[in-house]
Amino acid sequence: MMRTSVLIMIICILVVNLGSVCKGGHLRKHFYKETCPLAEEIVKNITWKRVATNSSLPPKFLRMHFHDCFVRGCDASILLDSTANNTAEKEANPNLSLGGYTVIDEIKAKLEDTCPGVVSCADILALVTRDSVSFQFKKPLWEVLTGRRDGRISRASEASANIPTPSLNFSSLKQSFAKKSLTLHDLVVLSGGHSIGMGHCNFFSNRLYNFTRKGDADPSLNANYASFLRTKCRNLSDNVTAVEMDPGNSRSFDNHYFRNLKLHKGLFQSDAALLTNKGATNIVDELLSSSKFFTEFAQSMKRMGAIEVLTGNSGEIRNKCNVIN
Questions:
Q1: For the stretch 103-138, what's the b/e string if a residue is b when 16 or more beta carbons lie within 10 angstroms of its beta carbon?
Q2: CATH topology (fold) of 182-304
Q3: Annotated binding site
Q4: Span of the secretion signal (predicted)?
Q5: Is the pLDDT of residue 72 over 80?
């Protein structure tokens, strides 16, 4: 009798757990297979069409996804507009240079026409990021598990408090990533996202002028590279000019960033910080292998895309990505 009761209890627990998975309690492959089978194809087709005529989109989406996940998890809170009573994340200083919102709106509109109220903006952002970066290879660079739901809260103050800044030292960077359950390995690997895109002068020009209050540049910065950057960023107040984050190779997603880093040509202090720790430096050396970089980047993006996700009955599926229902 006792054994029978225990067996029934175990079966009930298994049924409950399986039920939660079936209801979307976790991210998984092909989440929309039954409810919106064309979802991922629609996202890819529109994304590739737009990236084909605008090469600045991949790095913008990569940063947008990263910045979104570091604030309240990957819940598309970064897509929400400000209201009369609230300043949203997209208005925070780290997010002012982001772009591509209209592409996400276009994709969402098409998905709402195809299968209304089914595909979340959080999943759209995760898929757009993967597909935009993958465009140059014409194949997906990493797997995106789906089933995220959308958050209802977006505060600029939380973005400023949670998104790692380009001026952080190694210990602060490591702590910032650890708070999101990301490892030292993830920190170094995901820094490889700086392989594409531009960096505005105001985020690094302090390294070029009077860095140690002696009228000099940051001694950890390659001297020739510093001289070149001074020809682009004429003064500390320039917040308009932007330069390549991966000099000479900023439109091609690859491991070239790590080669430049070893030459002390990391644009931001947060880049240079990776060489101030032995463990991080060892990982940088490993990522000089192209195949190693692509393999590891895929795994780290998968982990980042799962930070504090809303699933099951949490959050909502927004009808429009820029406003809550």
A1: bbbebbebbbeeeeebbbbbbbbbbbbbbbbbbbee
A2: Peroxidase; domain 2 (1.10.420)
A3: 68, 71, 73, 75, 77, 89, 164, 194, 246, 254
A4: 1-24
A5: yes
* Binding-site residues for heme b: 194
Distance CA 27, CA 313 (A): 13
Q: Could you list the residues known to form a binding site for substrate, using ranges.
A: 164
Query: What backbone phi and psi angles, to 5 degrees, belong to 192?
Result: -60, -10
- The percentage of the chain sitting over the pLDDT mark of 90, rounded to a whole number, equals 86
Element (H, E) at 146: none
Give the C-alpha separation, 141 to 136, whole Å: 10
Q: What Cα–Cα distance (Å) separates residue 236 from each residue in 240, 273, 325?
A: 11, 21, 43
Q: Are 150 and 120 in contact (CB under 8 A)?
A: yes
Q: What is the pLDDT of residues 135-179, one digit of tens each?
A: 999 999 999 999 999 999 999 999 999 999 999 999 999 999 999
CATH architecture of 38-162: Orthogonal Bundle (1.10)
pLDDT at site 4? 41
Residues of the chain with CATH 1.10.420.10: 182-304
DSSP per-residue codes, 175-192? HHHHTTT--HHHHHHHHG
- Which residues are within 8 A (CB) of 251 and not within 5 positions of it... i.e. 6 or more apart? 55, 196
Q: What is the pLDDT of residues 7-43, one digit of tens each?
A: 444 443 443 343 333 333 489 999 999 999 999 999 9
Active site residues: 67
DSSP tag of 3: H
Q: Taking residues 221-225, what's their average pLDDT?
A: 96
